[in-house]
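Thread: quick sanity check before group meeting

JM: Hey all, I'm pulling together slides for Thursday and realized we never actually wrote out the predicted structure for the chain we discussed last week. Dropping the sequence here so it's in one place. If anyone has concerns about the input, flag it before I start.
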Amino acid sequence: MSYESPFLATPNIKLLGVLTRDLDKYKIPKNCRIQMNQTDIKRTRELLNEDFVKKNKEWEKDLQLALKLRIKAEIQALSTFGFEFLTDRYLPEKLTTGDWI
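JM (edit): ok, ran it. Output follows.
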């Protein structure tokens, strides 16, 4: 959306969602993993060409992993472990370790 208006840009925003590297780290079940479609793959490749991604090696690494595995997951996948998992474990770990994009 930042391309629509300079007033919508949020350079300091952090993504706390499920990253590709989280799939194995948190043992996200296979049935909660989603195959990337052609649009997902195209957008991921486009993101890898963006300067702001190239400047952040962790983003680049995670996007490359997504392309390699061709899978993704949504935050709802964490509910597999119970409703408290998100608030009691996942978010506190992300915020404590700074493991976000």
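AS: nice. The radius of gyration is 15 Å. Strands lie at 34-35, 71-72.
JM: adding both to the slides.
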